[in-house]
Specification:
globular; mainly alpha; single chain
């Protein structure tokens, strides 16, 4: 129980840092493509080599769902991780929007659009489906890479944090122009709540279901594809232990 609590605290801290620093860079640069993408990737690298040795540095419910379905964590661990991630993201958003308000910086318009997730071209069926598909594919790639490089049989264990951070950077380079890039339900929920509480903007919270559903579906799909493609390799790796 004590170890699980420590893992939960690490997940809370890691998600807090992700939202405050990465979304903070996005807000202050107006969502500038390269700097925002690098900010998200660099936060993952930093957290992977700090809290990662305790909790694995999921800091994302979609990643945790992928790990649960890949049988790398228990349901109890999954629930603790997700609750901690949501709390950490919310605290990060509260601090970010709160500091901005105290400093008389308006996180609205272009600045707010760079840290919340949105349907890019109007609220219609085509735009909604496009956003769902974009987030599903982006999250699928991200979680699939994570499951591969963190596998016990992988040769990429040591540089895994760097690989994952660079993958998230790549995902943002494409996704920012499409949806603002979520791939993380905790981050999307946190900034949507921050925009509602501090700016009175209700639209992000109306659209947030897209950025909860699609990343979770992408994480689940990644676990399924990983299990199918790597089943034979896993069985071969386990054979020596059975002898």
């Amino acid at each position: 129980m004590k170890d699980l609590l420590k893992k939960g605290l690490c997940e809370c801290l890691g998600t807090f840092v992700l939202v405050f620093f990465a979304c903070g860079v996005a807000a202050l640069t107006g969502g500038e493509l390269v700097s925002t993408s690098l900010a998200f990737g660099l936060v993952i690298v930093a957290m992977a080599y700090s809290v990662g040795r305790i909790s694995g540095c999921h800091i994302n419910p979609a990643v945790s769902l992928g790990c649960l379905l890949a049988k790398r964590m228990t349901l109890k661990e999954f629930l603790v991780y997700v609750c901690a991630q949501i709390l950490g993201g919310f605290l990060g958003a509260l601090l970010l929007f709160g500091v901005a308000k105290m400093s008389q910086l308006t996180l609205a318009g272009n600045a707010c659009n760079s840290i919340i997730n949105y349907v890019n071209v109007g609220w219609n069926a085509g735009a909604i489906i496009g956003s769902l598909l974009a987030e599903l594919v982006l999250t699928f790639v991200f979680v699939y890479v994570i499951l591969n490089v963190t596998a016990k049989a992988s040769d990429a264990n040591r540089p895994a944090g760097l690989i994952i951070g660079l993958t998230l950077t790549l995902v943002h380079l494409l996704g920012i122009g499409l949806t603002g890039t979520s791939v993380n339900p905790a981050r999307s929920l946190a900034t949507a709540l921050g925009a509602l509480i501090f700016n009175g903007e209700a639209e992000p919270i109306k659209e947030v279901w897209i950025f909860l559903l699609a990343p979770l579906a992408g994480g689940a799909l990644a676990a399924l594809v990983y299990s199918l493609l790597h089943k034979e390799k896993k069985e071969q790796a386990e054979e020596p232990k059975a002898e």
